Amino acid sequence: MDKLKEIKDRFAEGEIKQQHLETMIFNEVYDSDASRLQDACHDAARIRCSVAEESTGVSLDLIKNSRLDNSGLSEGHLLTGIEMKVGAALIPMGLAGPVKISGEYAKGEYYLPLATNEAALVAGVQRGVKAINMSGGIRTQVTFDGMSRAPLLEAPDIDAAKKFCIRVQEDRDLIQELNKEIKDPFVRLEYIEPYQLGTKVFLRMVCKTGDAMGMNGVTKASADIARRILKDLEGWKLITISSNLCTDKKASHINILQGRGKSVHAEVFVPEEVLQKVFKKGVTSRSVERVVFHKCYLGSTLSGTISGFNVNAANALAAFFAATGQDMAHVVSSSAAFVQADAVEGGLHFMVSMPSLEIATIGGGTNFGTAREALKLLGCGEIGTSPDDNENVKRLAEICCTAVAALDLNTACAQAAGYEMADSHVALARGEK
Amino acid sequence: MDKLKEIKDRFAEGEIKQQHLETMIFNEVYDSDASRLQDACHDAARIRCSVAEESTGVSLDLIKNSRLDNSGLSEGHLLTGIEMKVGAALIPMGLAGPVKISGEYAKGEYYLPLATNEAALVAGVQRGVKAINMSGGIRTQVTFDGMSRAPLLEAPDIDAAKKFCIRVQEDRDLIQELNKEIKDPFVRLEYIEPYQLGTKVFLRMVCKTGDAMGMNGVTKASADIARRILKDLEGWKLITISSNLCTDKKASHINILQGRGKSVHAEVFVPEEVLQKVFKKGVTSRSVERVVFHKCYLGSTLSGTISGFNVNAANALAAFFAATGQDMAHVVSSSAAFVQADAVEGGLHFMVSMPSLEIATIGGGTNFGTAREALKLLGCGEIGTSPDDNENVKRLAEICCTAVAALDLNTACAQAAGYEMADSHVALARGEK
Amino acid sequence: MDKLKEIKDRFAEGEIKQQHLETMIFNEVYDSDASRLQDACHDAARIRCSVAEESTGVSLDLIKNSRLDNSGLSEGHLLTGIEMKVGAALIPMGLAGPVKISGEYAKGEYYLPLATNEAALVAGVQRGVKAINMSGGIRTQVTFDGMSRAPLLEAPDIDAAKKFCIRVQEDRDLIQELNKEIKDPFVRLEYIEPYQLGTKVFLRMVCKTGDAMGMNGVTKASADIARRILKDLEGWKLITISSNLCTDKKASHINILQGRGKSVHAEVFVPEEVLQKVFKKGVTSRSVERVVFHKCYLGSTLSGTISGFNVNAANALAAFFAATGQDMAHVVSSSAAFVQADAVEGGLHFMVSMPSLEIATIGGGTNFGTAREALKLLGCGEIGTSPDDNENVKRLAEICCTAVAALDLNTACAQAAGYEMADSHVALARGEK
Amino acid sequence: MDKLKEIKDRFAEGEIKQQHLETMIFNEVYDSDASRLQDACHDAARIRCSVAEESTGVSLDLIKNSRLDNSGLSEGHLLTGIEMKVGAALIPMGLAGPVKISGEYAKGEYYLPLATNEAALVAGVQRGVKAINMSGGIRTQVTFDGMSRAPLLEAPDIDAAKKFCIRVQEDRDLIQELNKEIKDPFVRLEYIEPYQLGTKVFLRMVCKTGDAMGMNGVTKASADIARRILKDLEGWKLITISSNLCTDKKASHINILQGRGKSVHAEVFVPEEVLQKVFKKGVTSRSVERVVFHKCYLGSTLSGTISGFNVNAANALAAFFAATGQDMAHVVSSSAAFVQADAVEGGLHFMVSMPSLEIATIGGGTNFGTAREALKLLGCGEIGTSPDDNENVKRLAEICCTAVAALDLNTACAQAAGYEMADSHVALARGEK
What we know:
Order of helices and strands of chain A: HHHHEEEEHEEHHEEHEHEHHEHHEEHHH
Distance between the termini of chain A: 51 Å
Number of domains of chain A: 3
Oligomer: homotetramer
Shape of chain A: globular
Radius of gyration of chain A: 25 Å
């Protein structure tokens, strides 16, 4: 294919801009044939790899040949998914489960797809699943649903700031009016929490976004809304359309208190005899309770965390996110979790609360490739048709919380058994189990 | 291959345990031929997929066919990398750069591999790179290096607790003696920070771990050390070998103050004219300074974060981590970052400090596949030979911090230009740029 | 007075209980003559001092002779104010001001009574007052008013917990019904914020409490309300009537976000020439802005505070609290403050926001002695007649915030002048000024 | 005394400056007779009161007549203690105890002086004392001693910053050399913790300060040291001599981890039968453990505190501080406390850890009046003669921690008894007990 070779040479010479490469190949090599769009994008990726290989002498064979078809056409424009694409990264995927869930949305038995490089993680989830299933399954629920963005405005003086904050809280018509600014049919503004520091007014806008995680939709909406608000406010200024009070991709306490994405809870009652059977002999509800207190509360508080009151929620969460195409930067805030292990009559009452699980079944990485398959496997492949129609993503949130609960239950019990955690990691890494 | 079919059927019937599947195929189908090890593991993964497909009716074609050869043999045992493997997850990868770095370890021009599903991210990094390069490059450094684990012990009374804490701080021989317990030649205990709460003693053990991230090595070491310590202490008990004071995979302030993994800093001086050329007209050092103050400090403090004083460090970090095979759950703690934007004579003094970057060039996901290629591309493919020999990983840490700095510089400037951030996300998502 | 001597001897012998001493003297020595009540209590205090003096050999002359008449009679019972009283502690009081305030409630010129042992503090406030007055005065406002307590209940399962939380948020009749349980005419329940962690339900009850700080009234109300709620909820349990989510007397982020007591803001625009005249020559709006950023934000965030984004709010606050009879343990939470110093056209825009100022003009120490006089001096001596009638305490809150703003303005400017802060402390302590 | 009348008139006319009033009366009315110094200061205070009374029409009788002699002469200068003095504030004082302490420094039986306006507080401490004494007393210890200040410097670039931080950590000669700059014989620099954020270097200087709390001495020392350091560092600048990393009078996590003032621990083992006798029937070690977990950990973590893991440490602490002349603004940071209540074989293992108790037996308010008497009563009236000679203040720290432990033990048990806390507050406030 000489044409492609020629384009590659021109690209290597810097004659073709990065952002034009896919379009040029699509048009010139494939005559804008929509059925060849993915091939065009794959060619572009391979060209970029080749140029990097030639300039560095390093082989990028696997990257070059890994292919994820996430491109599309929109009103004549070629959407490449991400920019400057060279291929795809591969993360090993395991499948734990099936686990019994009695949730509001997840009802039945579910596999738990987990993409991770960490040995012992999938096995750990699986042992937790075993304990859960022997205990009759886990109960789950979603108690909050909303995606937030928080533009920051500056009032001319504190009186104007106060007056506007009161209006935002009390004037329901304002919310309705602002909703008219939102073009995206999958985004609806629910309410605005105003926070004032002197003349600075943070408007934490909370939206329903259907089955989407919603951050991009909400960012756009918040810019439109800020523009609209400022039109009527004399002497006010926009400081930033995103003020970190959202809070996006940072561990923040406001997300704990007010929620972001979904707030999800799970509980399971594990009888003493299940603890004994699944874990080591010394593991009792009381010993697990003490480990969880000392590790997840005494240790965590001394460490100065404001969101990490769990055994290792991020481990299961990151693996579940990678497998299902979520935004991996959301691991920061979504892994916030409170674990409780109460020794009660007859066994262990184990609970996990995740206040800010930012998750999706549509949009971004969930639309394509291995992620799409994983979502379908979980019965979350359908797509809601309105901001409120989000049973798929709530189901997914409950399954995700279950994966976290399974791993944390397992690891809490492993630590209640003394040195077992370290020993088992070593054994698994050595292939002894 | 009838044998394989038969194994599959027995597996579907539950006659073969999950953890025996690879070994059985390897032995029975491939006659334990080491050169066919990866095939055996791939077969096992496909069998698991098929069973899940059959039980759910959902096709897992892409998962089934994605293959990442991360298995190995160790003293006759088959190491599968992760357990219950079904294939691999794919995340699109882009390549920003090259960017000029004048670091302690990174010196020259470097590509920035970024695996992400988020549109605009790679383009954002690239615009930051443009500004950095036009400013003569970025300066980087590593100021801390150490991996920590913190077992928690209980003393019989507070006097015993105090006495032991003093010994841990003052007795250098103790550290030397404890090092004898560590079998892993790539792990060396440097010092122990003791923290006492009544009778409870947290021992935050800090180790050098060469080019490895080191968490598993340190976990093992800390179990051995705890065992050794307790042998001599009458009336003491182990509460847990990992107390969350480490702190692993939670956003914690102790990691900010004491460091974990690597502490890395980057600075670049961006002349006013570069700001004007690369970003919108209104963008000046003063306007960027104000946005960074309001977003990364006023907004962040109000949000109740203890680690998120940045524009969006997690975005670049997660993409860099996914591309280079890092433990994705470490995004939580590694994305802690303080950004500073000082308007000074002639331009913008932009700085990023990342106190707890947990990163590796060897171990876990870095050993295999696309990650290995990405690491080689960055000149970080060699492997140190001792706990102190870690120039590869320090180089990687500096490059990673550069990626974060590039994106945060870009996004801070975008927000200083008013609504640009939202508009550009939409445009990119729509393919208009 | 033989009778008194005899009582003293019997008390020294342990024949009279601590809590009966005042009543016995009142009855037996003063024949229950109400006009001699304070004398009886003072006698009791002196007796306790004498007994302690005799047993230790230490003279308590000043304590014994310091007298604060805070006793009373209520339905025949003698109220001693506090128990086991021996006298009073004395803290030196200075009077800064008058300062010009244009507040919502404080309008005019106000003295600032400050009880403290710290040299330079009153002088520092006074220099801040000077700058404020030369700038035309300070503007103040109250944006939140409500006292909170948070009992913690346990539901039988997470479904019941969720259901009840929804009811608490949506059922306005419930709030009205619960208000019937509250006997105190100065307390009215406004709303309840429910927070759920698994089966645990925190009910953060927010009340109006008139001119009182309200904590005791609200504690009683929350017990009555918890009792009432539990009556209708089968299988639920009370864990504690006060769960630290209130949050009382601890530095907590929930008080920052949701407010407690009063949220107060103050702003003053200080022209450049005022900065030059009042402070050292080098002090400009820009230099103050930089000091405030580095100290109150960069330094504070690195220190791991969640409420201390100010120069030294606690100094002025504690002195104002001691002078006006507030609960000194509330200094912890009430001193939460965000200071902003924006260099703007023509000068410095200086702002202080105090989200959780727990303050009173009636109840506890505000009813008596020097505190009562100080409150009258501030025009805050009247007492509202209902939960909503609280202009006195709001006026006081604005004056208190002004004292904090004056000191923080002064100290920020002093630090912008380099070593001045240390030098001036020394000079004042040496009497050189 | 016509002279005094004349001075008052001139003062009222504004002809005499605030800071000259005491000196003028001392010189002109009392002929600089040192024995009349306190009278001169008291006259000045009364004059200020009169002027305020005349301008406002409010009587300040009690303030005017409360007298605290805290003035002195130093090299011919008159030291007024605080500035613009008008008298003193009175806070009621009670005396709990004696309590049995087996501490490192406090050994024997100690009264607990408590100045507070809160009913039920002294009685609550006393009930805790009763339980402690019936349990054989409380064990206490001091595990850290050091006062800190943290100037903030700016390096010309990150390399210079790193180099200097390393020097500060490794060069013991530097510390010795810097100590030469310190003029105060009661202050000795022990070590410096450097923290780097880009080019900004925070130097947390930790000093021994004898029996003094030490903040003023350390502030002066840190200015001198900063000056000395900067002399040798080209291109460096002082940003502020106090950067909030100290951290002074704000609730900060660095003080928790690194300590400030004294770190103190207390433990007591309370047998089940003592719990039953002293508290209500239902109170068991298990019920107290559960309340402490839910309130001090689950509730506190959800509230977003980083220092408030206790029942109500600030209550006892503030009262003890007011009674013993401590800096009341230090209640913010000194009240940081971790309470543990472990149900163990036979009873309750109750512990309190206070990492940053900033306390003194000499300097500021401790030198005078009722505070001095209270300190003598506690056997803490002597004064050490060097930075290391600080047994008095350590003894005081242990007694203070005991007061906190007594109240928190009592209140935890009260809450374990259901509604008791609210009921008893009401009863005590009504005089029913």
